[in-house]
Amino acid sequence: MTNTQLTLVQIDNYGPWTVTPDPRREMDLQTLQSRLFADLAQFVGSRDGYVFFTRFDNMVAVTNGLDREDHKLLQESIANRYPVTLSLGIGTDRNPAVALERATDHVQRAGSAQDGDRREVLSGDTLAEADRSSSDVQIAHFDVNDATGKYTDRLNEFDTFIHIEQGYASLMRYLREEHGALSFFVGGDNIIAVTPDLTTEQYRAAIDHVEAEADVELKVGVGTASNAHEAGFAAKHALEDCRHLGTTVEFADASVEPTTD
């Protein structure tokens, strides 16, 4: 049974900072945001977690395996190297959406995202080691069937982007509303979802919904483990099984071992 630990990462007072004392150059802001995300991904990823950029000023991390000291170290590292600070809220639940609601509540109770006096909040409890298991995190890795042949090699980039994003929006909404799963676009034609325990039939229903609503065909590999890296690595192998077998849903073989890279 899943028990997902999620961390909301929120840049403190970011909106006002971007226009103080004057509006900052847009590409400078984009550079800061992309570098900050890269550093977060490296920090959390080195501890077997995942981070998703969502809106960049607010990011979501799957942090099973990270404790409060890890979160404090992340805040300290960013404060030492960036002109902005981070507030972190931690939530846990079998349902990822509920875990995120709890993480968000911790940060919101400490003050507004644009409160100049609210800095480096760290609130919420991580999973105790005794409460962790090998089935805490389920990761579903979706991609678009033959995206290169249907879109990339036939359409201009913006029209391709529209098709991919429409499929993502349909999947994101369906999984959130039906199952409390959280889906994130991660580039190319790939979507990674953090889900509760879902069955093959439930994944097929999601894929059928996206095809009917957005006319985008998907397949998915699913992995389960104690942390996001191992679950996600297993999901990648299951997705390769879909490609080789011509199937739409595959669960990872329990024997798949993640790399240590």
UniProtKB/TrEMBL annotation:
NCBIfam families: PRK02240.1. InterPro entries: GTP_CycHdrlase_3 (IPR007839), Nucleotide_cyclase (IPR029787), Rev_trsase/Diguanyl_cyclase (IPR043128). This is GTP cyclohydrolase III. The keyword Hydrolase applies. Keywords: GTP-binding, Hydrolase, Nucleotide-binding. Catalyzes the formation of 2-amino-5-formylamino-6-ribofuranosylamino-4(3H)-pyrimidinone ribonucleotide monophosphate and inorganic phosphate from GTP. Also has an independent pyrophosphate phosphohydrolase activity. Belongs to the archaeal-type GTP cyclohydrolase family. It catalyses: GTP + 3 H2O = 2-amino-5-formylamino-6-(5-phospho-D-ribosylamino)pyrimidin-4(3H)-one + 2 phosphate + 2 H(+). Pfam families: GCH_III. Gene3D superfamilies: 3.30.70.270, Nucleotide cyclase (3.30.70.1230). One of its GO terms (molecular function) is GTP binding. Its EC number is 3.5.4.29.
